[in-house]
């Protein structure tokens, strides 16, 4: 199913997040990831939701989100056209024998080594979904011990504002 | 000003004159303030009735209804009624008491997260944590409840907030909610497109829903239908939005509808749906039907367009009254004589039949409603409960002119009728207006306590109870699905003496047990100036069609 990135401006009232989460749960929509953060306006927060579904579902999701009184705006962001990134930390099994191999692969992805241990390496990588997925595929043979993904967030390019 | 007094002031400014409520510890300050207020408090006998009363009040008066309950169990008792109002887009404001702010989140005595619990059934809910916000919150709540697609709003007010003293307040600050700006006017480009497709239709129908009633667009609908000679079908929620005596009226669609209506719908090549959501109960249009039919869908809620029926050809987001007004400005000029001829033929072929071929004991409920309809004055509000009684009421009682019809359509909540009738009774502007509630012996037992409100206030409400000694509709479903061996849990044959119940609550009691007695008894009932309980003895095997 196709992934869609939705960027929302919401009023910073108590219960907004649970209304949004509740909407997805109740109507059976998927949430792949959800991030919330402050904005330049202290009364407003910005939420990025990555969801998957067909066009009809996406249309309903947008309309239902718009119906929530505290939701100010909903915009679909095309990750290929707009600025859209995800922050990921990934812990990979490493030995004296393969550590430098792993690190050299990570350089191709511009991943940073943030922790080096005797048996593991922790990388930090930012990027769009496809890049992160590709990095995971490269690390898989070495053994991925654990990882954390922030979920995507993004902004439109150019002078347009949400 | 004391916050509790300020709350009442806010209500008065919104035009509230009646509150349906039930007190408790967390509402003590507000109840204390009510002593000196001009607002009438109606003590329901179970909070579950309060939102239904507020709903009946709102529907009768065309304003926002208000109900109130204490924290914890009082608040949770409101939930079904709030959900009922939400499904039918009825504007109500529910006020709940809450434990003191410092206790919130500690599982204190009678603490319940009511804003959380009602989240899926409210347009918006507020937990007031700062008394200074009260004027703004009340203004917003009423604004949200009554505008756009109407619906319930809940305000949860901790006890200590009610006790605060507010020094600076401003009641005149206009409402400004950045994320809430309903569209009322239809997009002119879409209107043009709609006109184009209507023009080329040969067999158009108007599919009118509760949105017509909510936006008070009845006049526009009649004019639009007459001017363009388009027949009108209504949904259950739309009953009453178009005179059922009108030659262009083509019945109620869906589960509660007529067979001939479905047939007309099947034949239509254009469905002009206004103020309805094409729900599964209204119509589940088959794919083939939708494929061959052009759908123009007008609704104030953009999310309803394309939700239940995906292939909406011409969506128009806007208020029914305004959009119909916009459409009326244009000349469409339809040739529908042949279509009307076809419809006449269908109506004749599948007439509305009041008779019953299978032998039965007691009365024929269809005749009860037909006779009631004939005998009742034009200024009547009929409130139907849920079950077989609702089918019969919606099919055989004619709504036209000053008549109104209320029921719980979306949620199908048993126990709606009498509480909503109480609300309607207190809201009616014309003293002569007759309020009639229709229910089954099952639903009657869900609100028995509220008869005390009727008795105590010396109201004149007629309660028509279909006594089939069964949970009739569910029993019919059991038969349809499992056959006669499938009856279970639907038996009400325990011999209740309803005459004694009527007497206990100071209601007149009538019993109709044969078809011959219908007219005579109903005439007496309608002539009486007292509330009456009319027990109609109906065969347990009397099915709805
Ligand atoms: C609160 C609630 N509980 C259960 C139901 C399911 N239900 C629908 S109709 C019905 C039977 C109603 O029986 P009664 O009030 O006697 O009316 P009748 O169908 O016999 O006219 C039931 C149980 C419901 N709609 N609402």
Compact overview of the structure:
The complex is a heterodimer of chains A (162) and B (545). Chain A has 162 residues and is α+β, with helices and mostly antiparallel strands.
Describe what you observe in this structure.
The complex is a heterodimer of chains A (162) and B (545). Chain A is of the alpha+beta class and 162 residues long. Chain A has two domains: 2-77, 2-Layer Sandwich (Alpha-Beta Plaits), CATH 3.30.70.260; 83-154, Alpha-Beta Plaits. Chain A contains four helices and nine strands. Chain A has helices at residues 16-26, 55-67, 99-108, 129-139, and strands at residues 3-11, 33-38, 44-52, 71-77, 83-93, 112-116, 120-127, 144-149, 153-155. In chain A, a hairpin with a 3-residue loop joins strand 6 and strand 7. The longest helix of chain A is centred in the middle third of the chain and has 13 residues, at 55-67. The radius of gyration of chain A is 18 Å and the shape is elongated. Chain A starts with a strand and ends in a 7-residue tail after the last strand. The model of chain A has no long low-confidence stretch (mean pLDDT 94). By secondary structure, chain B is an alpha/beta fold. Chain B folds into three domains: 3-162, Rossmann fold (3-Layer(aba) Sandwich); 188-349, Rossmann fold; 365-537, Thiamin diphosphate (ThDP)-binding fold, Pyr/PP domains (Rossmann fold), CATH 3.40.50. In chain B, the strands form three sheets. Chain B has a six-stranded parallel sheet. In chain B, helix 1 packs parallel to helix 7. The A-B interface holds A 10-11, 14-15, 18-19, 22, 26, 56, 59-60, 63-64, 66-73 and B 115-116, 119-120, 123-125, 127, 144, 177-180, 301-303, 306-307, 310. The structure holds thiamine diphosphate. The site of thiamine diphosphate has 20 residues of chain B, from helix 17, strand 15, helix 19 and helix 21.
């Amino acid at each position: 199913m196709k992934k869609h990135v939705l960027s929302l401006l919401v009023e910073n009232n108590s219960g907004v997040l649970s209304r949004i989460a509740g909407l997805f749960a109740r109507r059976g929509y998927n949430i792949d990831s959800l991030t919330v953060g402050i904005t330049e306006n202290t009364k407003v927060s910005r939420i990025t939701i990555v969801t998957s579904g067909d066009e009809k579902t996406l249309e309903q999701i947008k309309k239902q989100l718009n119906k929530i009184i505290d939701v100010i705006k909903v915009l679909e962001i095309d990750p290929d056209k707009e600025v859209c990134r995800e922050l990921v930390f990934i812990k990979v099994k490493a030995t004296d024998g393969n550590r430098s191999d792993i690190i050299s692969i990570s350089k191709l992805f511009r991943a940073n080594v943030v922790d080096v241990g005797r048996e593991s390496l922790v990388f930090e990588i930012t990027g769009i979904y496809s890049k992160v997925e590709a990095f995971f595929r490269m690390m898989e043979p070495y053994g991925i011990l654990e990882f954390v993904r922030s979920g995507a967030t993004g902004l439109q390019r150019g002078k347009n504002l949400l | 000003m004391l916050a509790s007094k300020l709350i009442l002031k806010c209500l008065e400014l919104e035009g509230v004159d009646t509150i349906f409520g039930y007190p408790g510890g967390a509402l003590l300050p507000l109840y204390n303030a009510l002593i000196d207020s001009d607002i009438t408090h109606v003590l329901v006998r179970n909070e579950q009735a309060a939102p239904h009363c507020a709903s009946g009040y709102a529907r009768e008066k065309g304003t926002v209804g208000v109900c109130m309950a204490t924290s914890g169990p009082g608040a949770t008792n409101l939930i079904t009624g709030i959900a009922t109002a939400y499904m039918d887009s009825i504007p109500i404001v529910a006020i709940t008491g809450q434990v003191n702010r410092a206790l919130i989140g500690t599982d204190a005595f009678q603490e319940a997260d009511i804003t959380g619990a009602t989240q899926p059934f409210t347009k918006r809910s507020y937990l007031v944590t700062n008394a200074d916000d009260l004027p703004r919150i009340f203004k917003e709540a009423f604004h949200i409840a009554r505008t756009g697609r109407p619906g319930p709003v809940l305000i949860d007010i901790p006890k200590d907030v009610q006790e605060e003293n507010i020094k600076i307040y401003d009641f005149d600050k206009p409402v400004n909610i950045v994320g809430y700006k309903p569209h009322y006017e239809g997009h002119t480009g879409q209107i043009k497109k709609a006109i184009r497709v209507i023009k080329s239709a040969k067999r158009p129908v108007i599919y009118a829903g509760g949105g017509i009633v909510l936006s008070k667009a009845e006049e526009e609908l009649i004019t639009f239908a007459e001017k363009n000679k388009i027949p009108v079908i209504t949904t259950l929620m739309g009953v009453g939005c178009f005179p059922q005596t009108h030659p262009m009226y083509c019945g109620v669609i869906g589960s509660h509808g007529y067979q001939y209506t479905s047939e007309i719908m099947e034949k239509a090549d254009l469905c002009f749906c206004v103020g309805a959501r094409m729900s599964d109960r209204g119509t589940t249009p088959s794919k083939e039907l939708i494929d061959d039919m052009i759908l123009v869908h007008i609704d104030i809620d953009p999310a309803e367009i394309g939700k239940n029926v995906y292939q909406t050809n011409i969506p128009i987001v806007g208020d029914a009254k305004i959009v119909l007004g916009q459409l009326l400005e244009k000349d469409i000029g339809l040739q529908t004589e042949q279509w009307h001829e076809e419809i006449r033929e269908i109506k004749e072929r599948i007439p509305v039949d009041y008779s019953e071929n299978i032998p039965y004991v007691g009365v024929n409920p269809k005749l009860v409603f037909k006779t009631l309809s004939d005998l009742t004055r034009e200024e009547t509000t009929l409130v139907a409960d849920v079950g077989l009684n609702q089918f019969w009421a919606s099919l055989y009682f004619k709504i036209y002119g000053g008549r109104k019809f209320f029921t719980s359509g979306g949620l199908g909540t048993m126990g709606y009728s009498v509480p909503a009738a109480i609300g309607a009774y207190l809201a009616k502007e014309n003293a002569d207006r007759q309020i009639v509630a229709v229910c089954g012996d099952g639903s009657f037992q869900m609100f028995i306590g509220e008869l005390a409100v009727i008795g105590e206030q010396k109201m004149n409400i007629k309660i028509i109870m279909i006594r089939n000694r069964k949970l009739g509709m569910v029993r019919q479903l059991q038969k349809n699905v499992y056959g006669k061996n499938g009856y279970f849990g639907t038996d009400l044959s325990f011999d209740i003496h309803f005459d004694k119940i009527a007497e206990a609550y100071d209601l007149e009691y009538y019993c109709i047990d044969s078809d011959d007695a219908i007219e005579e008894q109903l005439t007496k009932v309608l002539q009486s100036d007292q509330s009456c309980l009319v027990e109609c003895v109906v065969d347990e095997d009397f099915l709805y069609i």
